[in-house]
Design brief:
The protein has one domain. 76% of the residues lie in helices and 0% in strands.
Length: 306
């Protein structure tokens, strides 16, 4: 009986994983979220104009309803949800792609914030004296830097070095553990997102005309999301010790944990400090993978027959 139960458990995990992470599922989720994103954009836009012309009077002073440009904020939020799914999707497949997705998510959060910054710009000769205009400048430069750094990170992450060493068969066990973690993360993040939405909505109704600041709305869900990612990265780091004792791989995985922590810290700050922390996180990850590849190249050269 015990043997049957163990066999069934071994069959259940691959079935659940296939259900969540098959190519068919990914395509379905992509279509659903993109459809919702387009629909939400027009709903948000309609609400802005209905409020502007006095057809409805919502009890809100939110910055998200001041300008039609702000309507782009809502579809970007749904695109970010899809990016969260892709991050989990690539976790068992490629560790560097998984980290890249983290960087892409924080960059998209900044891009999403730019739409709100655009709607609140004060075009004047005192550009560098106005807080909102300064924040727009930080976010604009930061997003460009991140875009370039992510490109370099992806390029370095794809570099492969041929080696005379045989592939460690235990690596498949590591992949299975990553699949287990990914399978747990899907329902966990769904529950987190649902709880955040319900809690935020309930908070609005309880506080009548007062809506949380834009900064808190922008960080909604993702501050907790990156906290969980730190824990996941630490677990992956600890598990990796069972499968490799190579110094450069341990440092690489440890460096990625530090990079994620720096991103998480950015949610607790604002202005230039937040942008600097995010850019520093990606720059640190880029430096880590660059040095890691140097080690890999040396090992590949040393393993070649003389």
């Amino acid at each position: 009986m015990k043997l049957t139960e163990i066999t069934n458990k071994r069959k259940i995990l691959p079935l659940i994983f296939e259900k969540f992470f098959s190519e068919t599922t990914r395509e379905k989720i992509e279509k659903i979220i993109l459809s919702i994103a387009i629909f939400s954009f027009f709903i948000h836009l309609a609400l802005i104009y209905l409020m502007k012309f006095g057809f409805i009077d919502l009890p809100t002073n939110s910055e998200l309803f001041k300008s039609p440009i702000s309507a782009a904020y809502t579809p970007f939020s749904f695109i970010l949800i899809y990016e969260v799914y892709l991050l989990i999707y690539y976790l068992p497949k490629s560790f560097t792609t998984y980290i890249t997705k983290q960087y892409e998510i924080i960059t998209l959060i900044i891009i999403r914030k730019l739409f709100n910054d655009l709607s609140d710009l004060e075009l004047s000769s005192n550009w560098f004296e106005i807080k909102g205009d300064l924040q727009f400048t930080y976010d604009l430069i930061g997003s460009l830097l991140l875009f370039f750094l992510i490109y370099k990170f992806q390029k370095l992450g794809k570099v492969k070095f041929s080696s005379g060493n045989t592939v460690n068969p235990t690596i498949e066990k590591f992949v299975k553990k990553k699949r287990l973690i990914a399978t747990i993360l899907v329902p966990l993040f769904f529950v987190m997102a649902l709880y955040t939405l319900i809690d935020w909505t309930a908070g609005i109704f309880k506080s009548s005309n007062t809506i949380p600041s834009f900064e808190s709305i922008n960080n909604l869900f993702f501050d907790q999301f990156f906290t969980v990612l730190i824990l996941v990265d630490v677990v992956l780091l600890l598990i990796s010790f069972f499968y490799t004792n190579q110094f450069h791989k341990i440092i690489r995985n440890s460096g990625f944990v530090i990079s994620t922590i720096l991103i998480r810290m950015s949610f607790g700050s604002s202005g230039l400090t937040s942008t600097v922390l995010i850019v520093s996180a990606v720059l640190f990850g880029l430096a880590i993978i660059f040095i890691h590849n140097k080690y890999e190249k040396n090992e590949a050269i040393d393993s070649k027959p003389i």
